[in-house]
Amino acid sequence: MNALLRFATWLTFTGTVATLLGLAWDARSHRLDPTLAAREGVFTLSNPGHLLFASGLAIVVTGTIVLILGPALRRSGASFARRAAAVSAAVALVFLSVVTFASAVSGQDSQGHDDHSGHGNMAAPAATPEQRAAAAKLLAEVRAGVAPYADFSTARTAGYRQVTPWRYLTWGPAHFQNFAYTRDGVTLDPSRPEDLVFMRRPRGQVVLIGAMFLAPRGAGPRPGGPLTEWHTHDNLCVTATGTVALAKGPGQCPAGSFFIGEAVEMLHVWTFDNPDGPFAHSISPQAIQAALRQFGGR
Question: Is 123 a domain residue?
Fold first, then answer.
């Protein structure tokens, strides 16, 4: 077997292993985080399992092309340079197709799978100058009020406990809730948010990126008018320990959890410069990348 065929065989084997590892990684991610399916689509660039699967598939196709084209070109009497050029062109076409498909699908997914399914992201009417000023004041007050919690250990000591998994299994945003604040009857206290949103960077550092306030549906104050609209989710379940899960269908909660539906409304206030706005209802993949850049990369 010549060098080209050995290389093609090695490519095919390596690609098959990568594809299987990608499937296993994705299966494990979904087992550890039942909410993942609601936040991602068929292909999501931020999911390592999807990337590994797609890369492995591309390598398998590349190896197959080399296996087919190599002997054919050799029999045709083409020079080594022409054989190499033909194989390289085929390989480049495969990778270009994979990248184009992945980018297109991932772009569509990011529009509909940001954080969790909810209501309230509708286009809002224009805010008045007074409402804009009130929204800016609220943002400044919240950023000042939660500043002490930028120290993750301080937040933990204050009673904040993790209620959602890290979005990407080992890193990404996650909610931490203070159960005492959820029961104190106080709404929209800038220094006592019911939830804090932390992000674990890929290298392990945990940084504060926002807060979330809770209120009975219809009771949340809107000082900024359309800029500070609260939102609800119709698929939320909660376990006895406070961990959030997603309903499989209307009222169909995973075992060990109960349905809360839209009984509670929420308001996010982002403490980093969120490109989607300081009161965006969820944190998009683009916003996560912006947060990573603002906190000094990965």
Answer: no
